Amino acid sequence: MADAETLPRTPPQILGPFYPFMHKPIENGDLTSGGKAIGTVLHLSGRILTDDGAPIVNARVEIWQANANGRYAHPNDTTEPALDPAFHGFAVVHTDSEGRYAVTTIRPRAYQVTPGRWRPAHIHFQVDSSSERLVTQMYFAGDQYNDIDPWRNSTARADALTVDPVTRPDGSQEATFDIVMMRA
Ligand SMILES: [Fe+2]
């Protein structure tokens, strides 16, 4: 058999200060409390693949993020934007037999890290396969802070971390974010 084509691996990103160690993750894939959370609902899905294009079955996919106001439910986030009791910003899901994961969340908002310094809206990922743990972040096309964010641009391939959601007739959005990891 010829060598399989090699997909470029998804660039890693920093874990960041808001990993929600003190919360239990949602495990049913719905971070919005059945659509009650404030903000634009985002149907986010994708495949976890190895760099030869094979699906990674039963990968553990952790997702955490700020809410629609740009606030994390985390003791280290002492900023002003309001918490949203209906938004649970931490989930764990597992990939199916085709390497697919899916969550329903909301579009996070950009947030201020220090006075005058903002991070673009993003969603954190930590993915465990049998071969590696990948920590990364997903960004949104068109965010005004994308090009000036040192963490996003710590990779030359920030485009591989950036999605451009499509709006559905009901006003919610959908986006696909595939992740490529090391072969076992
Ligand atoms: Fe963050």
Commentary on this structure:
The chain has 184 residues and is mostly beta strands. It has a domain at 46-134 and 146-176: Protocatechuate 3,4-Dioxygenase, subunit A. Helices cover 0% and strands 33% of the residues. It is built from no helices and twelve strands. The chain is globular. The two termini are 18 Å apart. The model has no long low-confidence stretch (mean pLDDT 95). The structure holds fe (ii) ion (FE2). Fe (ii) ion (FE2) binds at residues 16, 18, 122, 124.
Key features of this structure:
about 180 residues; five-stranded mixed β-sheet; binds fe (ii) ion; single chain; mainly beta; about 0% helix; Protocatechuate 3,4-Dioxygenase, subunit A
Beta-strand portion reads 25-35%
The CATH class assignment of one domain is Mainly Beta
| Biggest pleated sheet | 5 strands, mixed
CATH homologous superfamily classification of one domain:
Aromatic compound dioxygenase
C-alpha-based Rg, rounded: 16 Å
Category by helix and strand content: mainly beta
Topology overview:
Elements: E1 41-50, E2 60-65, E3 90-94, E4 100-106, E5 111-114, E6 117-119, E7 122-128, E8 133-140, E9 162-163, E10 166-167, E11 173-176, E12 179-181
Parallel strand pairs: 1-11, 1-12, 8-9
Antiparallel strand pairs: 1-4, 2-3, 2-7, 5-6, 7-8, 10-11
Bound molecules: fe (ii) ion (FE2).
Residues 16, 18, 122, 124 line the site of fe (ii) ion.
In short:
By secondary structure, the chain is mainly beta. It contains no helices and 12 strands.
